[in-house]
Amino acid sequence: MEQLNKVTAGMQAKKKYRIKDRVLSEIGALEWPCFFTITRRVRSAEQTVMELTREALLKTYAPVAVLVDQLGTIRYVHGHTGLFLEPTQGYAGVNNILKMARKKFRRDLNKTLYQAITRRLAVDSPIIAVRRKKATEGLIIRVLPLLKEGSPAQKEDFYLVIFEQNPAVETVNSIELGNNAAVDQELMAINSEISLKKAALTQITAELETSRQDLDLSRSKLHTVKAHLFDAETEFQTLTEKIRQSQKELEILQNELLASQNELEANQAVKQPIAEKRLPLRAELDNLKNEMLMADLALKEKENVLKQFNGSDQPIADTPASVKQETVEPEPSVKPFEPEIVPDITIDEYLSIATDYHSKPDSFNDQASSQAPIEKGMGFFSKTEPKPFFQKNPGLSFDNEADLVNQADGTKELVFKDFAEFQTAASHGYRHDSELKSVVIPEGVEVIKRSMFYQCTQLERVIIPSTLKVIEDFAFYGCESLKSINLDSARVLERIGTSAFEGCRSLIQLVIPDAVIEIEEAVFLGCQRLQSVAFLENSQLETLGSHVFKDCVLISEMILPNQLKHIGISCFYGCDNLNVIHLPDELETLGEYAFYGCNALEKIDVSNQKILKQPGFSVGFPDGVKL
């Protein structure tokens, strides 16, 4: 009714100021639009006693409140909220209570509103002390849920946030004191808990230190075990190598034994008919020797008689018979002939000796006259026992066999006439020949057979041809006096077999031909005086086998060819003086323990970094080596 009265009064006021009623009727028609200002003064409506009373009560007792939804969006504001809310910085239109709340109330407002929304009950915040105009006031934030279940016409849930001020300072101070006491108790509890945790932390730290010490001890033990294991592995590897070498030597000895047996059988087959043919010749030679000795005795007796006859003053006719009988010595008794074992000789040798005897009897007489009459077996020998009549048989002879020539310096050189002669000699070889000091291999030879010069310990010099292609296994094994071999002259040499020069301790330097593709296992193992090994510029070497330069302790630098792809196990094992090595670009595999024991190694020149990153094995580089 009151609203209706107000609307009616407004309409009446508007009518009073209508232009058509008051202005246009007096001045007549005007052009439109007209520009002029109309000032209107409206008298304020008078408040009733009820409105004044309500307004006063609300200003005195009603707290400031804000109506929000579940998201905190402000729907209605009651009272002056400048003390609690402020516009947020940014674009206009932000009306969320959580964003507009001042910082000192934001945490408590957020917590209280969240509890009221989740519990759907009225929730009060703790008393908040607010400093204002040098005075302390108390503030409580209360949130009342206005749920849609309570009002059928309400479409959504609302929450009334009430900022209730408490002017009682004493109450606030007591609350602050109570809060301080609670905080102190809480702090004491926290401090005690911190002390306990510190003690527990100290104990844990001590246990951790003990565990660390145990771990260090375990690591040292593990390191020791690893060292022992590595030594055991190295020793096992050494024993394995020795067993392998022994097996190879046993195989070689078996081959030699088999060859010797075959040779012995062949010799027996050849000697049996020869011995049958020599029986009558031997008997005739024994008879001839017996006759020679008897003739020597008769000549000696005649010489003695002639000396006595020439020494007397009277002729023989005047000499009494008694004197003659005294001067003549009785003829010594000769024992019957006993056959003597005579070395085997050929028919040609026998005929030459017999011819010399019949043509030059005086030489044999002179020999027999110088001999003392010592009875020994069938004949007479001097005290120094002269050399026999016949040369010592050198053994079974082979057709086209090389000649052993005595040089001017006293050495013996084995010279082959041609390729066929070398091939014939290669069938039996010269194993364990201690007299051989030099070998000249003819042109046309392509292969030096397996173990051909095995352990010729006095062999010092070898000259090989330019046609040589392969040096087979153990060809010069154990030739510990070998000093010179011209490998660089063999331009087509492709392969050097296993242990071909193993144990050649006198070798000093070598030049590997550029045609060599593979150097097999242990080729130069144990060459302790070997100082330098040079590979030619265009070397095609691709493989260095296992243990090739093992224990070559005098090698100091090694520049491997660029075509090399594989380096075997323990290839440079124990090269104590090796300090610089160049690994080629094409290298693909590097054997385990390849550089183990190279303690002087300081620099490794390598452009292929991939080979140094292969996991799963130890190359054996010393600590601190520079790549």
From TrEMBL:
Keyword terms: Coiled coil
This protein's record includes keyword Coiled coil: yes
Coiled coil: 229-305
Pfam families membership: LRR_5
Annotated stretches, region: Disordered: 311-338
PANTHER family the record matches: IG-LIKE DOMAIN-CONTAINING PROTEIN, SURFACE ANTIGEN
Protein name: Leucine-rich repeat protein
